Amino acid sequence: MGGLGRVRTYLCIDLKSFYASVECVDRGLDPLSTDLVVADPDRGRSTICLAITPRMKERGVKNRCRLFEIPDGIDYLVATPRMRRYMEVSSLIYRTYLRYVSPNDLYAYSIDECFIDATPYLALYRTDARSFARMLMDAVLAETGVYATAGIGTNLFLAKVALDITAKREKDRIGYLDEPSFKASVWRHRPLTDIWNIGPGTAERLARHGVVDLEGVTRLDRSLLEREFGVNAQLLIDHAHGREDCTIDQIRSYRPRSTSIANGQVLMREYSFDEALVVLKEMVYESALELVERRMVAGHVSLMVGYTVPGRVYRTQRRRFTPETAASASRKLSRKTSSRRYLEQQIVALYEEKVNPARPVKRMSIALGRLEAESCETLDLFTDVRELERERALCRTSIEVRNRYGKNSLIRGIDALECATARQRNVQIGGHRA
Fold it and tell me: Alpha-carbon distance 151 to 149, whole Å?
């Protein structure tokens, strides 16, 4: 299994309510017995809680809820997000793992979750998988005060599912799955969206064929799945049977055939058509600087603008964008370039063509795609090569100044407008306070 000819043992370790746990520990509070949410109250009562403590979950509060959705009878603390602090603790935890395993056997899946190939360490430490997981979890707790949960599996997929589903049923917060136990305990698990890599869209399409669990997937005709999901059908079939051949080494060595640069944000209030255009130009500028810094050029652009829907709370997850809620468009460029002026011209044109001027804007994102090395830049008969070089030189100078003195050390006039967001976002991490 895992392409190595023998059964392997993988761990998937998750830091329990990570952001909320860090805030509790920093306040000298127990994360398991404290009512606390991580949210920015300055964004209003509709702001999303980035994390809530296990105690809040026991009280029936949903993860990723909004402040106004928390019942009035619960007395809780609100901690403003501190992304830089969370990154510091995450780095400390990563270094803790490295005291026990090689970096070649460790893959950071997110800021609070990682995969570990435990196979060679069970003999090294003369232990079993559950005891090894406990060793790592206890080391993290002793180092940071943060509790962890673990899944153990004979492949990466089973380790992740063990973490997400079976670990919750265990007193020691450690779940285990191999293929036989997977079929016995997870095949009929519902909802399907609890299973790693199955989103609401996939679940909806399966439901049209009467499938509501993984066992149902195994009973569907392969040709039907291939018609419905194309090349993704094989992955769905393999996961329905608990199979996964990918290894950590393959993940670490993977290089995508194509890359892109994406930039998006949820606006703090409803923006008019013209106000949102200001923000859009700021986003294009930031993306163009990133292109220049990476010495790459783009051959494709795309745009998505989400409207405020009257009477609804705007959510970014588990919602398909429709003409009622959003406008989107993309365009292949006539030349491969990193020119901010040209990219802005193309994206603004998409914006003016597709966005309804009468609809309030709440969310925006752009992407520059089909990236290639700067040496692959193409020109047309109307390109002023000298002007293009002057623009690129100015971008590189701006990058040097910003890298040395901070992003807000050099701003443009447009950034000083009341509706602009760049200066505020420049001091944020991941769209939240640093």
Answer: 7
Q: What is the pLDDT of residues 342-395, one digit of tens each?
A: 999 999 999 999 999 999 999 999 999 999 999 999 988 888 889 999 999 999
- CA-to-CA distance for 249 and 244, rounded, in angstroms? 14
Average pLDDT for residues 139-153, to the nearest whole number? 97
What is d(CA 282, CA 288) in angstroms, rounded to the nearest whole number?
10
CATH number, domain 1-176, options 3.30.70.270, 3.30.1330.40, 3.60.60.20, 3.90.650.10: 3.30.70.270
Encode pLDDT of 79-129 as tens digits. Answer: 999 999 999 999 999 999 999 999 999 999 999 999 999 999 999 999 999
Q: What does the angle CA 35 – CA 432 – CA 302 come to, to the nearest 5 degrees?
A: 130
- Per-residue burial over 213-245, b if 16 or more Cβ lie within 10 Å, else e, is bbebbeebeeeebeebbeeebeebbebbebbbe
| Tokens 């435990």 sit on residue | 118
Residue type, 276: A
